[in-house]
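Sequence design from tokenized structure. All designs in this work follow the same two-part layout: the structure record, then the generated sequence. An example of the structure record is given first.
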């Protein structure tokens, strides 16, 4: 994808992510034998937020919410433009840090607890994504997204355990059950974004849509140059995340971190070690 096309798709990412979120709500409703909201309901909510009067606790708090949106947007642009995968992961981590700092900057106990839980999310899954990037490097010889997407042999063939671990960590990144500690999306009180309102909450809302595109594009990379396989892996990941979200209950933070550090990360390391031994 050339730079101009990457920029256009990045600018349209909130729209794409909004549609993904709309489809997700319908699929989740069908799994529960409900009709569910209309496809465009996320956009109705978006425009409704524009009409709300923004209440600013203080300027730094609002600024951190906007920086969360900008950082997530830039992380996605690095991916779509074929840039360095590690830089994209770094900017995504930085964007989450903005959200956490914003959550800690207010006196609301709910916001502070949400920020602490967001940190636990980051501690749980971010090392796994760095290891996944290392696995893609071992297979393709580059951290460049453009080089990974040019790989003739799909990386998922050499990295099946890494891909499996990535699938099982997606609920943590997207704040879905059973790993939705930060947001508790099935409850009234949210996470570090709870004190945002109006257009500033709209920035948080939009960033979460961009994260859908970011996370599923990461899955797409495992298809290499076989874009049809990559699309199939994305659809598989989408339905698996929603299935897990529907059939599981929320775990505590020890179980979430333990699952990633004691099960998923060792599984990824085993795959990388086997790959390195086979290549040697």
């Amino acid at each position: 994808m050339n730079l101009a096309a990457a920029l256009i798709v990045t600018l349209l990412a909130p729209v794409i992510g909004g549609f993904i979120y709309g489809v997700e709500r319908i699929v989740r409703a069908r799994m529960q034998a409900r009709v569910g909201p209309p496809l465009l309901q996320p956009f109705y909510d978006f425009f409704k937020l524009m009409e709300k009067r923004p209440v600013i606790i203080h300027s730094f708090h609002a600024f951190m919410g906007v920086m969360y949106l900008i950082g997530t947007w830039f992380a996605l642009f690095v991916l779509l433009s074929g840039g360095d995968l590690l830089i994209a992961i770094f900017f995504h981590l930085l964007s989450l840090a903005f959200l956490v700092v914003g959550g800690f900057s207010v006196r609301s106990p709910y916001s502070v607890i949400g920020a602490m839980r967001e940190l636990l999310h980051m501690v749980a899954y971010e090392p796994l994504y760095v290891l996944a990037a290392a696995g893609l490097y071992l297979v393709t010889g580059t951290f460049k997204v453009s080089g990974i997407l040019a790989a003739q042999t799909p990386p998922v063939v050499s990295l099946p355990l890494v891909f499996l671990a990535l699938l099982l960590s997606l609920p943590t990144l997207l704040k879905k059950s059973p790993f939705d500690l930060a947001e508790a999306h099935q409850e009234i009180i949210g996470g570090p974004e709870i004190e945002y309102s109006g257009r500033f909450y709209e920035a948080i809302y939009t960033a979460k849509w961009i994260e859908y595109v970011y996370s599923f594009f990461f899955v797409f990379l495992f298809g290499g140059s076989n874009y049809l396989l990559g699309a199939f892996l994305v659809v598989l990941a989408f339905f698996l995340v929603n299935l897990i979200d529907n059939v599981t209950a929320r775990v505590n933070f020890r179980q979430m971190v333990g699952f990633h550090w004691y099960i998923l990360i060792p599984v990824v390391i085993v795959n990388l070690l086997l790959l390195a031994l086979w290549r040697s």
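The longest helix spans residues 109-140. We note this feature because it recurs in several other targets discussed in the main text.
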